[in-house]
Amino acid sequence: MPSALHHLVESVTDTYTVVAEHPRPGDIRPSVWEINGPDGKRWFGKVHAGPKLHHREVTAYQKWTVAMGAGRVPELVAVDPQTRTVLITAVPGRSLDTLCLPAEQERAAYEQAGELLARFHTAAADEPTPEATEEAWDEAVAQLLDRTAAYAPEHDLAMVRTFAEEAPPSLPQVSQHGDYMPKNWMWDETEQRLRVIDFERAEFRSAAYRDLSRLRYRILSHRPDLNAAFHHGYGRPLTTEELVACRAYGALDALDSLNWGIKHRDVGLVDEAHIMLENLRLETRKQVWVGWRT
Fold it and tell me: Which domains does the chain have, with CATH numbers?
């Protein structure tokens, strides 16, 4: 375990045992370290790869995660901004993406995921809304298309250009998790209870920017049962404006994930990017078919 994490843990207790190192996908994400403390306490220590990720995660734990309810998220035990280290409590359960659950349990987990995300999206409702411009959107799209031209076929690039031709509709800004996926949902089969981890991508954005678009195009669009369960928990279906925004943000996220995954040897992320692109293609075909029939 890095010396910076040893120093952070020692600011809390002199009695601890490093239990395990949990490597993360890719070649630049630091490992997470599992630690046993006194009186049966269990913690995880992390060194963030950069100051932005550190600030986001600390801000989320200090200001936003309380909205999700007691016992639903880890607690921040110690933090050192100089070394970008955090120590957080462990939560019960196993990552949902590693489990093969009966259909009823899986739907229950997704319903709870929707409910918890709806709570989280209310946590920063009173914060000022940053202004976004059409020019900034166009520039971001152009730069991404240029970066990914070597990795994606022309028909996918053309599809993304079409979806991103106009900036997404202006939507309310919320506290968004940023990587709200089953890998970050801890399901306790005994309690039948879901908890959420990993807030280093949390920021103040439209809910469609990552939370809703990523989940939609990686999982929900081809699992109508889980889509229904999730939105029942979330409290409502997506609006027309949110669906348009999800399509634009999802298209860019797919290319960005493909680019990042290839460059940093994250095979899982590359697979997820291809799933997003395929689901976007399928959605486009369905719209064309419906339009032709009408």
Answer: 3-89 (3.30.200), 94-293 (3.90.1200.10)
